[in-house]
Sequence to fold (349 residues):
Amino acid sequence: MEQKKGFNVAVVGATGAVGQQMIKTLENRDFPIAKLTLLSSKRSAGTKVTYKGKEVIVEEAKPESFKGIDIALFSAGGGVSKELAPHAVEHGAICVDNTSAFRMDENVPLVVPEVNEEDLHKHNGIIANPNCSTIQMVVALQPLKEKYGLSKVLVSTYQAVSGSGAAAVEELNSQTKAIIQNESFEPKILPVKSDKKHYQIAFNAVPQIDVFTENGFTYEEMKMINETKKIMHDKELKVAATCVRIPVATGHSESVYFEIENQDVSVADVKELLSSASGVVLQDEPENQIYPMPADCVGSNDVFVGRIRKDLDAKNGFHMWVVSDNLLKGAAWNSVQIAESLVKLGIVK
Fold:
């Protein structure tokens, strides 16, 4: 059967920060689209968005909005995904969901194409896009796991405020201006808008992303722990995370300590492996002060890795620094990349 020249694609949450990036990424990648449907809440319906030089009017997302849709990219909150994704599936669409709604559902594949693209074949209509901080870490770790084995991962994140939405970025900007001008301000969003207390993010570091669980870890930290094990198909992998919000608009950074099973591996071996890994850009010349920084990664689909060094005590332990644009590889690009894989593998026709 001849493959279609284009697919009917819907973007749910089209007016949000990630939704906007999804639309730009579809355009930049020249994804084969026959018809683009943009969906949002009732409040944002009627907004006009430009795609390939033409205006597309955003419609209110309803169950019947998915008639004739081949691929639906969701980024409008977990509640919306839980409500509407099943309707989209009923209408024959494959849903790529960028929320946490389905990530740990055993019947839903959790996919980073560089790591576990083959899991797409197991979908039942819904595919989950992992947490942004998880995505960039597993892209860097997977080549190491495949070649040397992986037994332990300890990660500390330095996450950008755009991970909490556009309003959080505005809060960062307004607080910075207020502090510089010696004006008063009242934090209202970070670390978590729904939590009891809110703290200054400008000129600060807040060691809370999402609310705390009973074990003392936050939900963001538990997402990294559980998602990493699921994506890598390794329930025995030891993973721990500490997630921190810092006053950067875009671009998550991570300090990753990992232990491999093969002890006879050098820093040069690790660098050589990662230099040719899919989706990875190696920036590691400490003698020339070359290393990844969030300011340099904005707008790129890649995961940047540097500061690779061997642990001074554990023979099989290494440290590395991982940086990526959380709105692109951490969200929009990974979702569109999944859609591209669906086409490439002939899963959507």
The longest strand covers residues 150-159. The chain has a mean pLDDT of 97. The CA atoms of residues 185 and 220 lie 27 Å apart. The radius of gyration is 20 Å.
